[in-house]
């Protein structure tokens, strides 16, 4: 393991240690029905586009049809959602698949239930990309060897996607320096030359393009053709004690996705109501792919990348990670 990998793995281990301590004494009481007969489920997710189908489903009675009412917490970030889930503060949260694989490898009881976001599977038309400044002279991901690329978190799927974009273009990703910059700050970091490139997702991809950046790599499609980027997950103990609620949630989310696929205009109109994305931007961004199953094939590949990059020492049991 390289010094960089040891440093990243050590930082992640500290986060997971905090997570495991926070989870001690968690309350996994079965979900209770409210006065209207619906079971309330508490969700946590960053306020990104993948929440639009959830809000639409709540408004259109899809969750109620399945006996559920959802409460969405957008203050608990994906980085802190694992301790919130394991401590029973929320029932379901979104987490990128690499983070969940690492958590499971550390013995944390997380269970991926249904995708939250996915690659579109279309190179050149995905919602995440590796971008560079338009006048930088860099025209390919391979040319980022020896240069600096920003990702939002050094230990998640963004880092894997950035490296894989370089590798897929024939470059050596070990010669790339990754630095951690939050997505909202990444477009400016590229335009001012603070970094040579950045891995960004929508709406920050569109923001970067508006500031003159150009895509040179599409790492999601390089990682796997059917990539599950993030998943709605729960504590394994919660899925065992609340099997009917979990099944109802998964069925409702799948129905929400079916509706969203047929009503893209409503999805785009909903996004500005819970994010800072302006309507004119929401009308143009590339939307996340919406898939019904967490891809086992993609999880296997991501586990391999995580082991290669020193985030895990062995692949966890993916049957224990992905809910059947």
Strand-helix topology:
Layout: H1 3-23, E1 39-44, H2 52-59, H3 62-65, E2 68-73, H4 81-86, E3 92-96, H5 97-105, E4 110-118, E5 128-133, E6 148-151, H6 157-168, E7 177-180, H7 186-191, E8 197-201, H8 204-210, E9 213-217, H9 219-223, E10 228-235, H10 236-241, H11 243-262, H12 264-270, H13 279-282, H14 296-308, H15 318-321
Parallel strand pairs: 1-2, 1-3, 6-7, 6-8
Antiparallel strand pairs: 3-10, 4-10, 5-8, 5-9
Helix pairs in contact: 2-11, 2-12, 5-14
List the defining traits of the structure above.
disordered N terminus; alpha/beta; D-Maltodextrin-Binding Protein, domain 2; NitT/TauT family transport system substrate-binding protein; 41% helix; 15 helices; Solute-binding_3/MltF_N; signal; 2 domains; 324 residues; 5-stranded mixed sheet
Structure, explained:
The structure is a single chain. The protein has 324 residues and is of the alpha/beta class. It folds into two domains: 3-118 and 226-321, Periplasmic binding protein-like II (D-Maltodextrin-Binding Protein, domain 2, 3-Layer(aba) Sandwich), CATH 3.40.190; 128-223, Periplasmic binding protein-like II (D-Maltodextrin-Binding Protein, domain 2), CATH 3.40.190. Helix content is 41%, strand content 18%. The chain contains 15 helices and ten strands. The strands form two sheets. Strands 2-1-3-10-4 form a five-stranded mixed beta sheet. A five-stranded mixed beta sheet has the order 7-6-8-5-9, with helices on both faces. Strand 6 (148-151), helix 6 and strand 7 (177-180) form a beta-alpha-beta unit. Helix 2 (52-59) crosses helix 11, helix 2 (52-59) packs across helix 12 and helix 5 (97-105) packs across helix 14 (296-308). The radius of gyration is 19 Å and the shape is globular.
């Amino acid at each position: 393991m390289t010094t960089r990998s040891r440093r990243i793995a050590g930082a992640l281990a500290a986060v997971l240690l905090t997570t495991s301590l926070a989870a001690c004494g968690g309350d996994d009481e079965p979900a209770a029905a409210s006065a209207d007969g619906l079971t309330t489920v508490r969700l946590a997710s960053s306020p990104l586009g993948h929440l639009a189908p959830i809000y639409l489903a709540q408004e259109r009675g899809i969750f109620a049809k399945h006996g559920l009412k959802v409460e969405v917490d957008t203050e608990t970030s994906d980085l802190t959602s694992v301790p919130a889930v394991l401590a029973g503060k929320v029932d379901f949260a979104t987490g990128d698949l690499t983070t969940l694989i690492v958590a499971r490898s550390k013995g944390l009881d997380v269970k991926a239930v249904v995708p939250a976001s996915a690659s579109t599977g279309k190179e050149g038309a995905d919602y995440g990309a590796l971008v560079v400044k338009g006048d930088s002279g860099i025209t390919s991901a391979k040319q980022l060897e020896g240069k600096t690329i920003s990702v939002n978190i050094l230990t998640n799927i963004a880092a894997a996607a950035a490296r894989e974009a370089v590798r897929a273009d024939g470059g050596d990703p070990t010669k790339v320096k990754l630095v951690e910059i939050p997505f909202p700050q990444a477009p400016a970091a590229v335009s001012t030359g603070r970094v040579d490139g950045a891995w960004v997702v929508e709406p920050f991809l569109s923001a970067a393009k508006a500031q003159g950046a150009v895509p040179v790599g599409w790492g999601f499609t390089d990682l796997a053709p059917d990539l599950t980027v993030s998943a709605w997950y729960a504590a394994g103990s919660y899925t065992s004690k609340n099997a009917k609620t979990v099944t109802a949630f998964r069925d409702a989310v799948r129905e929400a996705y079916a509706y969203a696929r047929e009503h893209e205009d409503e999805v785009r109109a909903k996004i500005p109501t819970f994010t800072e994305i302006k309507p004119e931007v929401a009308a143009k961004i590339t939307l996340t792919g919406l898939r019904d199953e967490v891809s086992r094939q993609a999880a296997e590949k991501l586990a391999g990348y995580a082991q290669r990059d020193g985030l895990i020492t062995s692949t966890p049991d993916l049957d224990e990670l992905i809910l059947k």
